[in-house]
Amino acid sequence: MKAEEPLAPHTFQLLSRVPGLAHGIFTRHGGVSRPPYDSLNVAWNNGDEPGRVADNLERIRQWLGFDRLVAAPQVHGDLSHLISAGDLGGYRERAPLLMAPPGDALITRLRGVGLMIKVADCQAVLVVDPVKRVIANIHCGWRGSVVGIIAKTIHRLVTECGSRSRDLIAAIGPSLGPCCAEFRNYRDELPPALWRYERRPLHFDFWQISRDQLLAAGLAAENIEVAGRCTFCDADFFSYRREQTTGR
Known about the structure:
This protein has helices spanning 13-16, 50-64, 85-88, 142-147, 149-161, 186-189, 206-216, 240-243, and strands at residues 68-71, 80-83, 92-94, 97-99, 105-108, 113-115, 123-129, 134-140, 169-172, 198-200, 203-204, 224-226.
């Protein structure tokens, strides 16, 4: 198969230094979906043709070099799944994906298994422990920030995987920036602890919120990288706020 455009994911310097780690936050380019899902849409539930979605997912799997990709229905909560070899056989297969139960963070030590989340303005927060060889992929929208999914996922890495917070490396992917993260009803939606992140009237800096939550979880400042690319502003990425009907 050959895409009209090459896959050109956003990658992170910190993660690229970890031996044996493949990662990427993929743009909308390089797939086969037609407008308004053009072209690398990986979501089945938005109206796109299932065969095209499967083709796009296979392109990503091959580009990353994984044997399998695992995803989960995302529910904007704080539930994470620690995936073992025994879990894979019980997951529903929707080729080329294995579908875990609903949740918003995936964790594994397994080699050759990629953890996939879907975003279109929300953050993908990638976490790796190069010492214990464990990875996590976190879907964090504003609701995830409110319920503390980042801290709760880090806690599982520490308590169940033996990680030390100071060893962890994290990257915050392209997502709504402080320029465009508008919350007109923020007093009803966000707890007072997050109000201080208002950068101009009704606009909030969720990049800094996630960075601060990682710091509070014990990560070192030099081990956190922020992409700094706003998905609303940057047409290379899908954006629900910009387009409503679009890909992921």
